[in-house]
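Priority: medium. Attachment 1 of 2:
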């Protein structure tokens, strides 16, 4: 099984395909996770001070 499939490859045993949708989705998920971590840290600091 291959992890990343190039757009021009003809195979069906892959997890991700290297195309625009996958790159956008990966970037979006990473940004959301970073924002969640920042929110947790900020709320922890806020509740610790008050």
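Attachment 2 of 2:
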């Amino acid at each position: 099984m291959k992890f990343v499939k190039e757009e021009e490859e003809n195979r069906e045993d892959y997890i991700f395909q290297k195309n625009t949708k996958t790159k956008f989705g990966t970037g979006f998920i990473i940004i959301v996770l970073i924002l969640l971590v920042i929110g947790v840290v900020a709320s922890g600091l806020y509740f610790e001070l008050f």
